[in-house]
C-alpha cells in the first residue's frame, strides 16, 4: 500500500503552545518531507500566531509554508475528508466530518495522537483500535514514546545534521549570539542557560544561587509565564524582549518568542536548558544538552509519575552520582525543595551530562513519529 496523499489534522488549543506546537511541527513534516497535502484545523489561532508570524488570525482559511490552515469553528463546512485523519490529544472531531468519513468508499485511517509519556503502559495502549459504536469506522490510539514499541518522537529528517553543523561552526554560533545581543565571547567559566518555564516557586532561589555563584551565568529567558517572577527578582514590575538585568554573577536577557527552528538554535547554543510541557522537552533531548524538565502540572499529581518515568529512562547508563544529580534537580524544579544545592550538583556535571545527551539523542533518533504514522497507514488501510 502507498502512503496517503492527504491528511487532516485537528487541534484544539487547550492552553499554552504545546498542542499547536506539536500539530504545526507534524503538519510541516508531513507536507515537506512526505509530500502530503495537509490541512491543519485549529480552533484558536492566537497562540499559533506567536510561532508563525505571517499567520493572519482574522482569516478562516490560508496557506502558510505549504500547509493549509483552517480556523475550526462550530459551523464546520462540508469537506471531503483526507485519507489520513489525525485528531490531536483526544479532541472531538465534528460529527458532520465523522459522517463524511464513514460515507467514503475507502475509509480514511483515523488516529488519535496522544500526549507523550515515557511510562510503561504506553506500549500496550499504542495502536489500540476503538470501533465507532454506530458507523463503519475505527479510530486508533497512536502514542508517541521513547521505545520501539511506541510511536516514537517528532524529529525532522535533517535535524541532527543541522544541529551538528551549528555546533561545529564557531562563526555561525557567534552570529547567533550577536543576533540576541549577547557577546559571542564567553567570560571565564561562564555558563549559558535557557529558561522556558511556567510560574515556579523554585525560580527565585535558583536565581539567587546564580547571582551568588562564583562563575558568571547568562540566562536566556523567552518572553512568557516566567518573566514576571524573574523581573520581580530584579525589582521590576515586569519585563519584555530586549530587557537585560544584572545582579552579582547573573545576567538575564529577555528574548522574544521566536519560531520553532529559532528556538531549537537557542537550545543548541546554550550549555543547559530548562524546558517545560511536551514539545520543548523533546527538542531539548534532540539538542543533547543537559536539561531540566518542568512537567505540565495536573491536579491529581499524576504528572509526577510521568516525570519520573522519563527521568528513569534518561539516566540509564549514567554514573550513580550524575543520575542522582538529575533526579534531585528535576524534583526540586517540580515542587521539591533545595533547588540551589541541587543546581550545584547538576551544573558541576554538565560536561558529562552533555556527552550522555548526545548518546541519548542518537539512541532515540531512529524512531521517527511521522514515518511511523505513515507506516501505520499502510498497514491499516
Ligand atoms: O507551551 P507548553 O507549556 O505546552 C503545554 C504542554 O504541551 C502540555 O503537555 C500540554 O498539556 C499543555 O500545553 C496544554 O510547552 P511545550 O509543549 O514545550 O510547547 C511550547 C512550544 O512553543 C514548543 O513547540 C516550542 C515552542 N516555542 C517557540 O516556538 N518559540 C519560543 O520562543 C519558545 C520559547 C517556544
Question: In words, what does this structure look like?
Answer:
The structure is a single chain. With 381 residues, the protein is α/β, with parallel strands linked by helices. The chain has two domains: 6-154 and 368-380, Rossmann fold, CATH 3.40.50; 159-364, 3-Layer(aba) Sandwich (Rossmann fold). It contains 15 helices and 14 strands. It binds 2'-deoxy-thymidine-beta-L-rhamnose. 2'-deoxy-thymidine-beta-L-rhamnose is lined by residues 14-19, 21, 51, 115, 196, 222, 257-260, 263, 276-280, 296.
| CATH architectural designation of the largest domain | 3-Layer(aba) Sandwich
* Weakly predicted, low-confidence segments: none
Mean pLDDT value: 97
Q: Could you say which structural class the secondary elements and strand pairing correspond to?
A: alpha/beta
Q: Name the ligand types.
A: 2'-deoxy-thymidine-beta-L-rhamnose
Reading side by side through the largest sheet, how are the strands ordered?
A: 3-4-2-1-5-6-8-7
Number of helices: 15
Quaternary:
single chain
Total number of distinct structural domains: 2
CATH 4th-level superfamily of the largest domain: Glycogen Phosphorylase B
CATH topology of the largest domain: Rossmann fold
Secondary structure: number of strands: 14
**Helices and strands, in N-to-C order?**
EHEHEEEHEHEEHHEHEHEEHEHEHHHHH
The percent range for helix content is 40-55%
In short:
It is built from 15 helices and 14 strands.
Amino acid at each position: 500500500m502507498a502512503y496517503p496523499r492527504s491528511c487532516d489534522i485537528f487541534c484544539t488549543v487547550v492552553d499554552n503552545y504545546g498542542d499547536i506546537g506539536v500539530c504545526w511541527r507534524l503538519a510541516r513534516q508531513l507536507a515537506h518531507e512526505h509530500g502530503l497535502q495537509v490541512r491543519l484545523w485549529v480552533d484558536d489561532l492566537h497562540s499559533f500566531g506567536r510561532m508563525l508570524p505571517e499567520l493572519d488570525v482574522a482569516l478562516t482559511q490560508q496557506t502558510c509554508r505549504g500547509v493549509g490552515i483552517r480556523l475550526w469553528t462550530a459551523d464546520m463546512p462540508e469537506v471531503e475528508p483526507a485519507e489520513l485523519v489525525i485528531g490531536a490529544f483526544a479532541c472531538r472531531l465534528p460529527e458532520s466530518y465523522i459522517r463524511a468519513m464513514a460515507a467514503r468508499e475507502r475509509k480514511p485511517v483515523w488516529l488519535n495522537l496522544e500526549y507523550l509519556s515515557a511510562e510503561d503502559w504506553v506500549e500496550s495502549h499504542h495502536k489500540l483500535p476503538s470501533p465507532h459504536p454506530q458507523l463503519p469506522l475505527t479510530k486508533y490510539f497512536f502514542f508517541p514514546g521513547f521505545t520501539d514499541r511506541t510511536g516514537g518522537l517528532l524529529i525532522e529528517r535533517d535535524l541532527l545534521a543541522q544541529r551538528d553543523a551549528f555546533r561545529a561552526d564557531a562563526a555561525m554560533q557567534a552570529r547567533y549570539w550577536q543576533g540576541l545581543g549577547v557577546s559571542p565571547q564567553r567570560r571565564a567559566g561562564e555558563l549559558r542557560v535557557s529558561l522556558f518555564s511556567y510560574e515556579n516557586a523554585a525560580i527565585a532561589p535558583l536565581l539567587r544561587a546564580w547571582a551568588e555563584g562564583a562563575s558568571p551565568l547568562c540566562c536566556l529567558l523567552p518572553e512568557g509565564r516566567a518573566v514576571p517572577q524573574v523581573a520581580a527578582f530584579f525589582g521590576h514590575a515586569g519585563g519584555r524582549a530586549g530587557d537585560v538585568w544584572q545582579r552579582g554573577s547573573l545576567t538575564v536577557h529577555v528574548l522574544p518568542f521566536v519560531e520553532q527552528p529559532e528556538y531549537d538554535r537557542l537550545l543548541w547554543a546554550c550549555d543547559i536548558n530548562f524546558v517545560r510541557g511536551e514539545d520543548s522537552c523533546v527538542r531539548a533531548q534532540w539538542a543533547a544538552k543537559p536539561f531540566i524538565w518542568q512537567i505540565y502540572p495536573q491536579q491529581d499529581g499524576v504528572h509526577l509519575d510521568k516525570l519520573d518515568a522519563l527521568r528513569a529512562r534518561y539516566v540509564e547508563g549514567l554514573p550513580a552520582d550524575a543520575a542522582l544529580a538529575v533526579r534531585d534537580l528535576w524534583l526540586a524544579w517540580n515542587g521539591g525543595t533545595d533547588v540551589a544545592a541541587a543546581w550545584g550538583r547538576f551544573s558541576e556535571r554538565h560536561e558529562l551530562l552533555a556527552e550522555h545527551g548526545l548518546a541519548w539523542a542518537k539512541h532515540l533518533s531512529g524512531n521517527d513519529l511521522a514515518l511511523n504514522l505513515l507506516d501505520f497507514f499502510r498497514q491499516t488501510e
